[in-house]
Amino acid sequence: MNDFDRVARRIDGLQAELDGRAMNDRLKMVGKELEPLVERAIRGDIADTSMSGWTHKKPAELTGRSELSTTVKTGIFVAPAIKGGAWRRGLGPMRVLQDGRKAYNAGDRRRSGTRTKKKTGEVVDKFRRVKRTVGATQGKNTWDEAVELMSKDIGARVDRIVLVDMLKKHWRG
Known about the structure:
By secondary structure, the chain is an alpha+beta fold. It has one domain. Helices cover 47% and strands 21% of the residues. The strands form three sheets. It has a three-stranded antiparallel β-sheet. Strands 4-7 form a two-stranded antiparallel ribbon. Strands 5-6 form a two-stranded antiparallel sheet. Helix 2 crosses helix 4 and helix 2 (21-46) runs antiparallel to helix 5. The longest helix has 26 residues, at 21-46.
């Protein structure tokens, strides 16, 4: 086998690596390295990862979670999550850490979501009565800090995991 055939085979291997399941595996590795940065931002604001008053039965232990993006062919999605649960359950506590909480007095009515009327298709707000006084809290910009931590060294992580490791695999033989 001559040198050109060897180079062509290595280039074909690189192309297959960039298009297929191997690229998704490398993106998952990048996401796994970004998850602890979300937790570090949470620890920086509340000293641990539990929001003790979030639920009555057990505290919400916040962490980061990553998934492959469904909207972009080669992308990763990093979001807050509650340990042991779905990532969507971590959005509420993270929003409170980011923006704070609004104050309500006992007996007030507050918006608790929307519903769609079956006959007309009209979307209307649902309201509920507040049971006890809830004090306002100031936001801590936790998610902004997590995004800043992730974006600070994302280039180096992607270079190391995706490019350097892949080139080592195919060019060192």
